[in-house]
Amino acid sequence: MKGLEADLGITLLRRVQGEYLLTAAAEAGLPLLRGAFDQLAEAVRRMRTDVSRHFLTISVGPTFASAWLVRRLGRFKTAFPEVEVRLDTTDEVADFARADADVGIRFGGGSYDGLESHRLFAEEIFPVCSPALLEAAPRLETPADLARYTLLHVDWTHGSKTLDWEMWLRAAGAEDVVDGQRGPRFSHASIALQAAVEGQGLALGSTSLAGDELAAGRLVRPFEIALPVNFAYYLVYPKTNAEVPKIAAFRKWILAETAGQAPAELIGPEA
């Protein structure tokens, strides 16, 4: 402001009782300046929109990202080559009001104010271990035999008992013979599952997180007992953005993936 006053040779601001007020000269130019600043702001907004139009920012927890999503993003790129992905892996809940993400994948009950949500899996939990551990002595034949094995735990931050050894042991009728609290703890389920792959013990797997490892034979299920859970992974986004092309494309793709639909069946983004 001082530079502008020096250039014009006039005073634009005057101090009155500790406050700065516009002079008559400044007031005269204000309408045009306000319009110019508004145009500048709109130009910047349009430039940012153009840059981000084809970028899809996905907010997702590290566990789901590493155990499921990252392995399949190549198929999304093949189906929708016009959309570039930004993956924000964080345990923090995305604040859509600040537009720091286009979509989120949340683990919870599925009811979120102002957001559209789509359940991705019908989740169950069940013990998993490496094939080598299953064949080793002592033999693992009944849930009671878990008393002689290491149980791998996850310290969940969701305030729920969704994946909990004590709950599974109770359902299996082995809570009185197996200490459901014994064993090492991990901050993320993906790490506990990797420890199970390496033969360090048994972890509780789920439909979404252990499915790939089971299909590849890196993990096996020693028991058929499984527990359905109320919490699940959900795709979420603001309801007002449901038909934004890049969001519609990702919705179509991920719902097809979780339903087992072949990527080739996806032709293009929804209108």
Account of the 3D structure:
- The protein is an alpha/beta fold and 271 residues long.
- The protein folds into three domains: 2-51, no CATH class; 53-122 and 231-265, D-Maltodextrin-Binding Protein, domain 2; 124-228, 3-Layer(aba) Sandwich (D-Maltodextrin-Binding Protein, domain 2).
- It contains nine helices and twelve strands.
- The strands form four sheets. It has a five-stranded mixed beta sheet.
Layout of secondary structure:
Blueprint: H1 2-8, E1 13-16, E2 19-22, H2 24-52, E3 55-60, H3 62-69, H4 73-79, E4 84-89, E5 103-108, E6 115-119, E7 124-128, H5 131-135, E8 153-154, H6 165-172, E9 185-186, H7 189-197, E10 203-206, H8 207-216, E11 227-228, E12 232-238, H9 245-258
Parallel strand pairs: 3-4, 3-5, 8-9
Antiparallel strand pairs: 1-2, 5-12, 6-12, 7-10, 7-11
Helix pairs in contact: 3-8
- Mean pLDDT across all amino acids: 83
Overall helicity = 25-40%
Order of helices and strands: HEEHEHHEEEEHEHEHEHEEH
CATH architecture of the largest domain: 3-Layer(aba) Sandwich
Unreliable stretches = 48-52, 261-271
Largest sheet: 5 strands, mixed
Structure summarized in a few sentences:
The protein is of the alpha/beta class.
Keywords:
271 residues; alpha/beta; D-Maltodextrin-Binding Protein, domain 2; five-stranded mixed sheet; 9 helices; disordered C terminus
